[in-house]
């Protein structure tokens, strides 16, 4: 009977080697467990745990692959959008900073002339309005969390000073956060939009203007995330009203938050992959004379410029926040894609290992060579490796019994097995003769191990004997051990083979 890719044999109990007509073979490609020796090799209707586990692993791998595609797409979309967002930030900074300086010079002259302007009047602070700018979407790392934590810290600071406060929330994430906390007073909930324009900024500016003019609040602070670079952003608090006495965009402590230099990042390709090029340039600022002459009334000019000032500062905050959000999302999705790739590799390794275990019937890691773990100084290992039946010949009975007893006490779920090649057999010698074999391993599975150890080709067969008989292939090694173990506590097995499948060698001398 000629066939290929056949390795594992199952036979009747106590089969003699000369009874070649009773031999049959089973394909290694058959994923079912080995049948009992008295049953036919029919397919089982139940699903094995290994098969179920393999399906679950395949589903997880497919799920990770799909997630990686999504995160990679989101990364590319964010990378494309962040370019336009940062250009809007960089292009808008010179205008807003110059406008603040012009207003400062006008305000300074009006104060010299003792003219009162409500939006520039500094009065004792009793209540503060906090304009908190967050994003509309998630999946951007800790972007939204950082600015919300900044707002919470500022609220606690105001409470510690005994000051009242109200919140103007801009952005869906901030809105949902404050809606879940009714104890925080919120004046209005607004949305920033995916592309901030003067229209969205004007809605916030109108609310801020009415609160400050009506003296419901004495100070307005703008909390947003300042865009620094693709990998760095800073939550800042900027005093919006009253107008800063320094003519600069300042934080609550009067420190300037204007950027002396701007960084522009250009998305390009290099060696077939997306990359980012950085450009750094200094923000242009105009020089104004401290003494200005106005053709119109300075109050009229200031009244016309102040709404423009509010709109420009809020629009700048929205643009900086959007650029920071997109940069954070690009970074977060890049990390998520890398993690998905690593997880996919790990799951694939586990899947391949379990698939191999399904084919062989057990995990190779559970079989441990005794030569590595029980090296005895009293044993001549070189001589044992060279001789047939050398373990019995080279070691007294007491030494063998002591070693087997020690092994059984330490590893109760395994059996010690000595495997050697039969004399005059044409199969290769085995490199390791002593094995710790799991008790629930079948004889057929152990035969596969022997084949792998001697590197036997698929065109040759192998027979493993215990006391000159072929044990049932589906029998457990623990049962064979209890029935055929030697007086020294070891199970001795001998393997032999034939040149082709179907005809056992008649001239094999068994020990």
Q: Layout of SSEs?
A:
Elements: E1 6-9, E2 25-27, H1 49-112, E3 127-133, H2 143-160, E4 164-170, H3 172-179, E5 186-190, H4 198-213, E6 219-229, E7 232-241, E8 261-270, E9 273-282, H5 298-360, E10 368-369, H6 370-373, H7 381-386, H8 390-394, H9 397-410, E11 414-421, E12 434-438, H10 443-454, E13 461-465, H11 477-484, E14 491-498
Parallel strand pairs: 3-4, 3-6, 4-5, 11-14
Antiparallel strand pairs: 1-2, 6-7, 8-9, 10-12, 11-12, 13-14
Subcellular location: Cytoplasm, Cytoskeleton; Cytoplasmic vesicle, Autophagosome membrane; Plastid, Chloroplast thylakoid membrane; Vacuole membrane
Main location: cytoplasm
Family: Belongs to the ATG8 family.
| Largest sheet, strands/sense/barrel | 5 strands, mixed
Rg, Cα atoms, Å: 41 Å
Distance between the termini: 29 Å
Kindly provide the name of the CATH class of the largest domain: Alpha Beta
The CATH architecture of the largest domain comes to 3-Layer(aba) Sandwich
Order of helices and strands: EEHEHEHEHEEEEHEHHHHEEHEHE
How many separate helices? 11
**How large a portion of the residues is in β-strands, by DSSP E?**
15-25%
Arrangement of strands in the largest sheet: 5-4-3-6-7
The class by helix and strand makeup works out as alpha/beta
How would the global form be characterised? rod-shaped
Tally the beta strands: 14
Query: What would the average pLDDT be, to the nearest integer?
Result: 74
Helix content: 40-55%
The stretches of 5 or more residues where confidence is low (pLDDT under 50) are: 1-48, 256-267, 362-388, 499-511
CATH names the topology of the largest domain as: Pyruvate Kinase, Chain: A, domain 1
């Amino acid at each position: 009977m000629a066939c290929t890719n056949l390795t594992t044999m199952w036979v009747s109990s106590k089969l003699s080697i000369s009874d070649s007509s009773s031999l049959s073979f089973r394909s290694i490609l058959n994923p079912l467990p080995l049948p009992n020796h008295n049953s036919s090799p029919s397919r089982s209707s139940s699903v094995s745990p290994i098969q179920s586990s393999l399906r679950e692993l395949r589903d997880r791998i497919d799920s990770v692959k799909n997630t990686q595609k999504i995160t990679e797409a989101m990364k590319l979309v964010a990378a494309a959008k962040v370019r336009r967002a940062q250009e809007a930030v960089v292009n808008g900074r010179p205008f807003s900073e110059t406008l603040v300086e012009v207003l400062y010079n006008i305000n300074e002259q009006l104060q010299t002339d003792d003219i009162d302007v409500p939006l520039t009047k500094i009065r004792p602070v009793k209540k503060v309005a906090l304009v908190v700018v967050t994003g509309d979407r998630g999946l951007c790392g800790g972007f939204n969390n950082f600015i919300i934590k900044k707002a919470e810290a500022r609220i606690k600071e105001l409470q510690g000073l005994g000051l009242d406060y109200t919140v103007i929330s801009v952005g869906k994430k901030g809105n949902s956060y404050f809606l879940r906390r009714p104890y925080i007073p919120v004046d209005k909930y607004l949305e920033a939009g995916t592309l901030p324009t003067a229209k969205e900024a004007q809605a916030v500016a109108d609310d801020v203007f009415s609160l400050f003019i009506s003296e419901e609040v004495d100070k307005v602070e703008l909390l947003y995330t300042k865009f620094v670079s693709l990998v760095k952003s800073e939550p800042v608090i900027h005093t919006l009203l009253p107008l800063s006495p320094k003519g600069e965009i300042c934080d609550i402590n009067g420190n300037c938050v204007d950027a002396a230099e701007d960084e522009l990042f250009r998305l390009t390709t290099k060696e077939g992959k997306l990359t980012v090029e950085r450009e750094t340039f200094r923000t242009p600022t105009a020089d104004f004379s401290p003494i200005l002459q106005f053709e119109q009334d300075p109050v009229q000019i200031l009244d016309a410029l102040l709404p423009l000032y509010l709109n420009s500062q809020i629009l700048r905050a929205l643009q900086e926040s959007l650029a920071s959000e997109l940069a954070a999302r690009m970074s977060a999705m890049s990390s998520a894609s890398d993690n998905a790739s690593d997880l996919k590799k790990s799951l694939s390794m586990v899947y391949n290992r379990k698939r191999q275990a399904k084919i062989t019937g057990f995990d190779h890691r559970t079989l441990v060579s005794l030569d590595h773990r029980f090296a005895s100084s009293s044993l001549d290992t070189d001589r044992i490796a060279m001789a047939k039946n050398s373990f019995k010949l080279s070691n007294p009975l007491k030494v063998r019994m002591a070693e087997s007893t020690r092994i059984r006490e330490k590893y109760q779920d395994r059996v010690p097995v000595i495997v050697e090649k039969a004399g005059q057999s044409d199969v290769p010698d085995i490199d390791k003769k002593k094995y710790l074999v799991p008790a629930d391993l079948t004889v057929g599975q152990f035969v596969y191990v022997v084949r792998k150890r001697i590197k036997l080709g698929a065109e040759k067969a192998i027979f493993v004997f215990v006391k000159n008989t072929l044990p049932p292939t589906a029998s457990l090694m623990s049962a064979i051990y209890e029935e055929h173990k030697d007086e020294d506590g070891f199970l001795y097995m001998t393997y032999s083979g034939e040149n082709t499948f179907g005809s056992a060698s008649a001239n094999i001398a068994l020990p």
